[in-house]
């Protein structure tokens, strides 16, 4: 969303939320590249070690993602919902995408923690599909936040609401 063709300048707390996407995207893209390779070598008969390695990366990513998501879910989304509602529209979409990503990351982690011993290529691909689905959801989600939601919040929220958002880091 742009005003008169120029990018919208975000207040400090919104700019900070946006800036957190870069490192999160790098971690997410790195685990997705690794996940995409799992199950592809026809000569490999056990993928359990690869899944364990991926699990560490995904769990590290989730630890970084959680505080970011919490600031959005507990502060930004409720502030915006006062203006646009929560049942339909952008806040409902954002909350649904957060939940979908969390579910997929949790399914991957649960499966990775409970491997049945040797993991063949088909099972490995099934397990990593959850991490890849979370990557797809979050890639699109970050883009929507950066291009639509954050600029919308900049225009919509008043100074007091922006101050509430800023206090989320204190």
Automatic annotation (TrEMBL):
Gene3D superfamilies: nmb1532 protein domain like (1.20.120.520). Pfam families: Hemerythrin (PF01814). Residues 14-153 form the Hemerythrin-like domain. GO terms for cellular component: plasma membrane. Signal peptide: none annotated. It comes from the Bacteria. InterPro entries: Hemerythrin-like. This is Hemerythrin domain-containing protein. It comes from Paenibacillus thalictri.
